[in-house]
Each structure stands twice: as structure tokens, then as C-alpha cells.
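Let's practice the habit of predicting before peeking. Look at the sequence and jot down your guess about where helices and strands might fall. Then scroll down.
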Amino acid sequence: MDLTAAALPPARRRSALLAVDLLDIPWYKRAAPALVAMALVALADFLSGKDRYLAPLMTVVPSIAALTLRPRELLLVCSLGLLIVFGLSHYDQVDNVNDERFLLGAMVSYLVLTLFSAWVARIRMRRAAAYAAVSSVAEAAQRALLRLPGPTVGPLRLAVRYASAADDARIGGDLYSVLETPHGTRVLVGDVRGKGLGAVQTAAVVLGAFREAAYDESRLRGVAARIEASVERHVPDGEFTTALFAEFRRPGAVELLHFGHVPPVQVLADGTVRVLEHPDPWVPLGLGRLVPGEPDSWDLPFGRDDVLVLCTDGVVEARRDGSGDFYPLAERAGPLVHGAARSPAELEAAVGRLYADLLAHTGGVLGDDALLLLISRVDPAPGALAGEPA
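Done guessing? Here is the structure:
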């Protein structure tokens, strides 16, 4: 997903509208319910014999068509229904005065219902357009908020995949940022509780605080404390954000700070996979006032041929076919990511393979936002890292 645009392109907005109002489905498939209803009425009239006249049942057709068709399509389909009514009246030999009056009343009712249903279809499309516009604006706001970093930030190479959920909320609270600061290269990956615009607003608070504190605070714990304070001030009580902080200050090492987030996976140069679970993880951001003490960071070796895989719970909690096993990231990351630290192209190919494998596991549908961020080291010149003496 391209996150560089501040607003969604027209084609994306059109896709949102089509998906909301079923217009991404061919018209003949959307017309199928109304056509089936016509066929059933005609068949019932034919099988009941000439002494029973069931054509007035055709009045159900406009109501069914209003659920799936555009107004013009509805008028076209319902015109076919009117012709069928005429045909059935000829078949049933409607020729006396009482029957003709009955037929006239049925036709007038059919025409009135057709016009009313066309108006209902128009209202339905307007509301669908309004909903699609709101969803598109919210998704555009989320794209602008994230500010996709370049393929290289400081001493790090990056490759990312971010996919919005396939459900009605459309947007969620997954967030990430990578900044080169005077104190080293700092990374934040987080997941806000909930979905929709409220989650985006909370993500804005967290990211805004991180982008300020990352440059001001000399230690990673100070950055986290600043964000915790911002969340307590500006986010409603009960809302929280799981987060993982990483700092690359020294060559060959990474400092991690956990706040109830999914543990990262490290793929070593030989293909060995390590799940980096903190021995004493802290509570999510927004809940710090409920527990005493301070979170502890920890340092780990991180070589130039290693790859760090960061993600959100939309990845590790993705189920096979929506109800089966969780996605086994630790098992799949090794063979799919091994060797990706050699070049930016290989790192980008690796995140593509991992994301494709995730989609294959779920049958192509994600039930939650999913973020995959792969990080490897660029071999810097001596003294090039922030914080290192020249």
C-alpha cells in the first residue's frame, strides 16, 4: 500500500464507493434477485393454470431491485416485469370487465412501486456515496499521519507492508515511525485499541509525541515517558496503545523497550529465528498510572546480516480461513526472510514474500489491520552513526 499520498486518488475513492454499494459486482449479478423473482412469479402463474391469475405478485420485484440496482437499471429490469405481466394476462385470458379492472389496478400498483423503488435506490446510492467519502477521508488521514519513511533511515534499511482490514471499519490504529535523531535511530511500532476515527486520533497523539520526544530525550525510557504523559492528557480514559520501541545507537546492537506489544522476531545471518520476548514487559501506553515502577529496556546483539521483523497483532492473530490456526510468524519468517539483509532489493522482496504468505494463510482476507516492518543494518563508515565519535 502506498502511504506517500496525503489523499486517496480518485480511483481509490471510486473503489470505496463501489465496494460499499455493491457496484463492484457486475450489473447482471445484481439484477439476478429481481430476475429470479420474476421467473418464480411467472412459473407459479403458469403452473397454477389459466383459472388462477398470479401476475399481481410481480409487485415484489421493484422492492427487491431497489436493494441492489441503480435507478436506471431498476427501471429497465422492472420494464421487463411489466411485459411479463402483460404476457401472463394474455395467457390467463383476462377478457371480462372485472378481470380487466383487476389487471389495471395491479399494473398501476406495479408502476407506482417501480417509481418509488427507483427513488429509494437513488437515496441508497447517495448514502453509500457519503459513507464511502467518510471512509476515504479517514483512510487518507491515516496515510498522511503515518508518513512512510524512505528505504534507508540512518544506518537502517527498511521494508514495510501496511494493509487496512477488510471489515467495515476500514481503518484501524496500527502505527509506526522511524526517525534519525541525535541520540541514534529510533523506531516505534504500535497498535491502538479499537478502530475508526477514534483510533486514528489516538495514533496521532502517540506519533506526535514520539516525533518530538525522540529528538529531545537522550534515553529511550524518557521518550516513552513523554508519550505516556501525552496519552494520559489527550486520550480518553480506558484507551490504550501497545507499543514497541527500538533504538539503534551503537553498531552491532539494538535496545528494545516493550509496552505490551507483539514481540519482534530476529532472523540471524545463518537463518536461525529468535523471538525477542522481554522477560518483564511493561503495560501498554495509557495504563502506566495503574502500576508502580518504570519499564526496563534491554540490549541485544544485532549484526549487519541480521533482520529484525516487527509487526502488529493483525499479523500474528490472523487466522487460517478466519477461524483456524494463528499465523505462525516465527516459523515462517526464517525461510522467507533469511539473507534479506544483503541489499535493499532483497529486503523489499522478503517483506513481499512474508506478506503474500500471510494472505495465503488467511485466504486473502485480513480481519484486522496488519503491519510488517523489516529492518536490517547498512554498514556505516566509522564514526558515521549518531552518537559515535568521529
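How did you do? Residues 155 and 181 are 11 Å apart (CA to CA).
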